[in-house]
Specification:
The chain is an alpha/beta fold and about 625 residues long. It has helices at about 90-95, 100-105, 125-130, 135-140, 155-165, 220-230, 275, 280-305, 320, 345-360, 375-420, 465-540, 550-570, 580-620; strands at about 10-15, 30-35, 35-40, 55-60, 60-65, 75-80, 80-85, 110-120, 170-180, 185, 200, 205, 215, 235, 245, 245-255, 260-265, 330-340, 365, 425-435, 440-445. It has 3 domains: about 85-365, Kinesin (3-Layer(aba) Sandwich), CATH 3.40.850.10; about 375-415; about 495-620, no CATH class. The strands form 6 sheets. Strands 3, 7, 8, 9, 10, 13, 16, 17 and 18 form a 9-stranded mixed β-sheet that branches. The protein is extended.
């Protein structure tokens, strides 16, 4: 008997999150949302013959066929800024993403960020960094002549080529390349096992001691990229034979005339399931998933954020600290979500598309950083003033339109009141004889007495200048209140930084005291052990020949010393005990010194807690 045919797939339309409109509370400056593009990689060799589960419908939409309960396939539709199918070449990807426009803005002083997100093996590194070139392929054909763009080059190589071809000789580029591995920062240009610290300054978070190299041609950036990729941590597992085990960030700082721009390329490590990847180091997988989970929390919070005072968990991860200005900050950001079309990875694909759909709701406020007469603060103040003036103009136009509408409505009501309906009581019926002698009746309208109509018109709206003056006064009052709040916040921030430095200094002092006490107790313990061994050797050497054997004498000696030590520790001890070995005696001495060290630490910890309470009280008063 033939099996029943499978039911047709059910189509569901998933609506993207609402994109914030201009003029809301968050749009105090010129703002824009994060642009999101999705790239679907081709099927690899071991996936050949499978039916793709992801299909690009048009330039900005795609469909995902996912299995559901009851054996019915569900088609989910997503809308993005750009969807790239598996047949897209690297050059077509660079052109379609609008990377040239983003780089032009970076040359004018705007911070730009391009980062790739997706599951392991979805093509993130291939999109951002491209395939590694051989050593001989990286060398230019002649000195001073750059190598042409390769078909396998990623966004970084093509972006650097475009920067040097577009800009003039005033362009200066400084490059740094580092990775985030297990929440620690490591320099890829000077590889070693020493992790770099992460500090927070006026321009955001930075890593002091990070190597930055001057680049004069695109080949210099290619050499930096090649050297860093050699030092990056990689591993092979079941899902990807060349899997990146860290997040890599390539930062290009641009100096072009008075503009100071920055371009950051981020190649994120892929999220993965340990039971499927069979990774040999679960610690790496856990660190990667935790950092990506923190990034997902930041994206989810920013996508539905409507109040500027709402907390965003940037400090939950090193990765989110470094991407603070790229997500909800002052940078122009492009996100490339890489997806696999294989049916076996449909769960990871749906997760990636969910992250990308939420990222479309993030709003940034990029601005240019200039040096010289046009400083950064002046630029932001001018931007703020322009937006305030634009808002006032919109309010004035809205009020004028409202006044015009009310005037027209009043005139219409007045016309309706002045029109009187005719009735039979307003007519007189008379008889008229025509020329042929026929009598006929005719109705003649009676003259109605003059009526005095009440004026139903409303008073004229106030002049527009008064409205503008009122709005201008309210704007100045709000500016004054904002200035006072800014001064109060700066004062509180300074006091808080000072108190925090005091707490750090007290903590460092206590740590040094604990280390000194531990070293003193260890040296005392070693000295007592050495004295005990010397005493035992001396008595064993001087013992009489007629005494007990060396073994019995050894037990007797250590038994007496153990009892004396026990009486020293516990004055109430009266027992004699059993013979013990030298190891047991040493262990008891160690327990005694650990007890003393714990008592010292408790007393010092009490002082630290007291200082912390005093600092907390000061912060509460602030």
């Amino acid at each position: 008997m033939a099996a029943a045919p499978a039911p047709p797939p059910r189509s569901t339309k998933e609506k993207p999150p609402p994109v914030p409109k201009r003029g809301g509370k968050r749009m105090s400056f010129a703002t824009e949302r994060v642009r999101v593009a999705v790239r679907v990689r081709p099927l690899v060799a071991h996936e050949a013959g499978q039916e793709p589960s992801v299909r690009c419908v048009d330039r900005g939409a795609l469909e995902v066929t996912a299995p559901s309960a009851g054996g019915v396939n569900t088609i989910k539709k997503y809308d993005f800024d750009l969807c790239l199918d598996p047949s897209s070449t690297e050059d077509a990807v660079f052109e379609a993403l609008g990377a040239k426009a983003l780089l032009d803005r970076a040359l004018r002083g705007i911070k730009a960020t391009v980062f790739a997100y997706g599951a392991t093996g979805s093509g993130k590194t291939h999109t951002i960094l491209g395939h590694e070139r051989e050593d001989f392929d990286l060398l230019p054909a002649s000195p001073g002549v750059d190598k042409p763009v390769n078909d396998r080059d990623g966004l970084v190589a093509r972006a650097v080529k475009y920067l040097y071809q577009t800009a003039d000789s005033q362009l200066q580029i400084r490059a740094s390349f580092f990775e985030v591995y297990c929440e620690q920062i490591y320099d890829l240009l000077e590889p070693n096992d020493r992790a770099l610290p992460l500090r927070e300054g006026n321009g955001g978070f930075f890593a002091p001691g990070l190597t930055e190299l001057d680049c004069h041609t695109s080949d210099d950036v290619e050499a930096i990229l090649r050297e860093g990729r050699r030092s990056r941590r990689k591993a092979s597992h079941k899902l990807n034979r060349d899997s990146s085990r860290s997040h890599a960030l390539l930062v290009l700082r641009l100096a072009h005339g008075a503009a100071r721009g920055r371009v950051t390329f981020v190649d994120l490590a892929g999220n993965e399931r340990l039971k499927r990847s069979k990774d040999s180091d679960p610690r790496e997988t856990g660190a990667i998933n935790r950092s990506l989970q923190a990034l997902g929390k930041v994206i989810a919070t920013l996508s539905k954020k409507e109040d500027n005072n709402e907390h965003v968990p940037y400090r939950d991860s090193t990765l989110t600290k470094l991407l603070m200005d790229s997500l909800g900050g002052d940078a122009a950001t492009l996100m490339v979500a890489c997806a696999s079309p294989a049916a076996a990875h449909v769960d990871e694909t749906l997760c990636t598309l969910g992250y990308a759909r939420r990222a479309r709701g993030i709003v940034n406020a990029p601005f240019a950083t200039l040096v010289g007469s046009d400083t950064n603060a002046e630029r932001r103040q001018q931007e703020r003033d322009r937006n305030e003036i634009e808002k006032l103009r919109e309010d004035v136009a809205r009020l004028r339109a409202e006044n015009l509408r009310l005037s027209e409505e009043n005139a219409r009501l007045l016309e309706l009141k002045t029109v009187e309906e005719d009735s039979d009581d307003d007519y007189d019926q008379i008889s008229v004889i025509s020329r042929g002698g026929t009598r006929r009746h005719q109705r003649v309208k009676r003259k109605a007495p003059q009526k005095v109509l009440k004026d139903f018109s409303v008073s004229e709206p106030p002049p527009t200048n008064d409205v503008e003056d009122k709005l201008r006064m309210e704007n100045e009052a709000l500016k004054e209140e904002l200035h006072q709040l800014t001064q109060r916040f700066d004062k509180f921030q300074g006091e808080q930084d000072y108190q925090f430095s005091q707490v750090q200094e007290a903590h460092a002092t206590q740590q040094s005291q604990w280390a000194a006490a531990l070293e003193r107790l260890q040296s005392e313990h070693k000295r007592e052990i050495d004295e005990l061994n010397e005493e035992h050797a001396r008595q064993l050497k001087d013992r009489p020949r007629s005494s007990d054997s060396a073994e019995d004498y050894y037990k007797k000696f250590y038994t007496e010393n153990l009892l004396n030590h026990q009486r020293k520790v516990d004055p109430t001890f009266q027992g004699r005990g059993d013979p013990h070995s030298a190891e047991q005696t040493t262990r008891n001495l160690s327990d005694h010194h650990e007890t003393e060290l714990i008592s010292v630490r408790r007393s010092q910890r009490g002082e630290v807690v007291k200082k912390h309470r005093d600092v907390s009280a000061l912060l509460g008063l602030a």
